[in-house]
Amino acid sequence: TDRLQIIVDYVENINGKKILDIGCCYGYFSHKLAQMGAEAVGIDICEPKIEVCKLLSDCYNLPPSNPKFYRSSYQEYLRNGGYFDIILFLSQFHHDIRANIKTAWNDLNLVSRHTDLLLIDLCEGTAGGCIQNWEPELMLQHTEFTELIPLKPSQRPRMLYALRKS
C-alpha cells in the first residue's frame, strides 16, 4: 500500500529497528518490514487473524521468529513492558476515540511511553466512521510526544502522522 512507502521513506533505514504493529490484522506491515530487516511484532485481538499471520510468514519465506505475532490488546501487551524504535498504530485510534475519548487518551499516553516514534493514521472528516472536527495537535497534549509531523495523505480520508519525542 502507499502507507508502507510513506513509512519507509520517512524512517529511511528500517533495518534493525524494533517495530510493534498494533492491530496488525493479517500482518501486512509486520511481514513487509521484517523482509526489510526490522525486528517486527504484530498484535491483534482476533486469534484467527493471528493464526493467518503465522501461516503467511511461511508464504513470505520468513522464519517464525520474525515477525512474531501475538493475540493481545495493545494495552495489555504494553503493560507487560517493552520498548520499540517504532510503533505503528494504523486503522485503530479513531475507533478508540469514538468508543471512549478519555480511555483513548489514556491508552495513547501508554503507547507514548513505549517508543520515541509513533506512526498513526486517523480517519478524519465526513466519511462514515471518521472523526469530525478533529485537531491532531490534541495528541501532543495527551502524550509524552513533543512533535507532530503530518506525512502526506495515504488513502483519503486517512491522514498519516508521525509523533516524535525531541
TrEMBL record:
<dbReference type="InterPro" id="IPR029063">
    <property type="entry name" value="SAM-dependent_MTases_sf"/>
</dbReference>
<feature type="domain" description="Methyltransferase">
    <location>
        <begin position="19"/>
        <end position="105"/>
    </location>
</feature>
<protein>
    <recommendedName>
        <fullName>Methyltransferase domain-containing protein</fullName>
    </recommendedName>
</protein>
<dbReference type="Pfam" id="PF13649">
    <property type="entry name" value="Methyltransf_25"/>
</dbReference>
<dbReference type="InterPro" id="IPR041698">
    <property type="entry name" value="Methyltransf_25"/>
</dbReference>
